[in-house]
Amino acid sequence: MRDPVRFGAVVRSLLSDGHGVFVEQAGHPVLTLPLTEACAERSGVVVGSLRRDEGGLSTLHRTLGVLHTQGHPVDWAALHGGSSGTVAPLPTYAFQRQRYWLEVKPSADVASAGLSSAAHPLLGAATPLADSDGFLFTGRLSVSEHRWLADYRVFDTVLVPGTGLLELVLAAGRTVGCTTVSDLTLAAPLVLPERGAVRVQLHVEAPDGQAHRAVALYSRAEDAPEDGPWTAHATGMLSATDEEASPSVDPRLQAWPPAGGEPLDLTDLYPRLAEQGLGYGPAFQGLTE
After folding, report:
1. Smallest Cα–Cα separation from 240: which of 216, 206, 217?
2. CB-based burial of residue 203 (10 Å sphere; 0-12 exposed, 13-18 middle, 19+ buried)?
3. Fewest 10 Å CB contacts: which of 37, 50, 131, 255?
4. Would strands 21-23 and 45-47 be described as parallel, antiparallel, or unpaired?
5. CA 158 – CA 151 distance, rounded (Å)
6. pLDDT, tens digit, for every residue of 36-50?
7. Between residues 65 and 41, which one has the greater pLDDT?
8. Do residues 282 and 151 touch, judged by C-beta distance below 8 A?
9. Residues 6+ apart with CB under 8 A from 193
10. Is the overall model pTM greater than 0.85, yes or no?
């Protein structure tokens, strides 16, 4: 009782000699904690054997399982009296985790900001201008909220396709009573960042004497300074009549396939386009012939 036990020195000596597994054979493993602290720097394994009021085989099996998961061999056949026990089948493929929950998107109350809903998935709000008969439409585009837009890439850059810009202009025209996009000139591509978003403004001017309205589409990065410039992407003209909606059709295209036309092989079309830098994901692979 008068001599020091020198427990720590003995454990360090055992670790230096190559011993790395310590099993405390006691009904109440009080030395597990100091053993664990002593083995922290040498990557040793410390387990108990039994515990007070937990002296059954399940506790012993759990201890052996800890040793097994730490990479130390356990003679399971000897444990089960010469048999290998019951083998639980495991998947033959790697465990994968995939979410199936629907992502809930926060709904913005545009009415509380003095605006009206544009009733369009890409245009969030609309408001008439006070000093004219024009309209202002606003929206917010991002890859995270509109994931299908990421299916269209040019040289690995996500662009809103030209038909998407046309759809925005047409949706704004319908709101103000215009049914036709008479013309639309694309000035610059609308690029979407991998992270973050862009703000979109669509200006519809007051109608002229022939019921035509000029339209212009702009965007700016969401994190840009408030006094930063806007990029003009498209300008055009809206019409309240549908006279231009049915232009004359080339007689050669009235029958399908066209006379003298030769079908093209579309096998591996989209992979070939991807090799040239034009990436069409599933949402944009609609070409059939």
Report:
1. 206
2. middle
3. 131
4. parallel
5. 8
6. 888 877 778 888 887
7. 65
8. yes
9. 142, 143, 158, 221
10. no
